[in-house]
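Hi all, long-time lurker, first post. I run a small reading group and we've been trying to get comfortable going from sequence to structure in the token notation. Rather than ask abstract questions, I figured I'd post a concrete chain and ask someone more experienced to write out its structure so we can walk through it together at our next meeting. Sequence below, copied exactly:
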Amino acid sequence: MEQIREYFETLVRLTDRDWHIFSSKLIRQEFPKKTLLLKAGQTENHLSFIEKGIIRFYIPKTESELTFDFVFNNAFVSGYSSFLTQTPSTYHVETLTDTVLWRLTYDDLQHIYSETLIGNTIGRYASEGLFLEKAKRELSFLNESAEQRYLKLFKEQPHLIKQIPLKYLSSYIGITPQALSRIRRRVT
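-- Answer (accepted) --
Happy to help. Here is the structure in token form:
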């Protein structure tokens, strides 16, 4: 839980009262790898902070799944469009490794917003972070080759990328597993 406070303290100063209200709503949960945290058709009810683990977002398809995001340690994670609108998700959210999350429900977050001075600021930083990651990914697809996207992911998360199966990495980058194998051979 202290990881979360340290994360927030890099952005804004928390009073002990605000931290107490916020932290009292957090629930620590552990999930084994390959756990579906959110299924398409369900409504997201949690905003979570990853203490440990890797989470994958994907669209289930009959012939192959389309992976469109990974989230790693020390970051917020949520089926955020579903969370904000409280409507069913169109994608799955799954743990790729054993994962530890600190979670807030939608209602608890609304309570934090109304009861603390810093709640809205924290919410804004969390949502801005999620938005910036989404924008970064979209721009990456518009401006970079598959090889550049792979190298960037490898540079940003070298110790974690080894834990992601090639079929998910290739889907995320937008290429076939065979094309990713060729890229990996070329850059090593």
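A couple of things your group might point at:
Residues 18 and 116 are 6 Å apart (CA to CA).
The beta strands are 27-31, 36-38, 46-52, 55-59, 66-71, 76-77, 92-95, 99-105.
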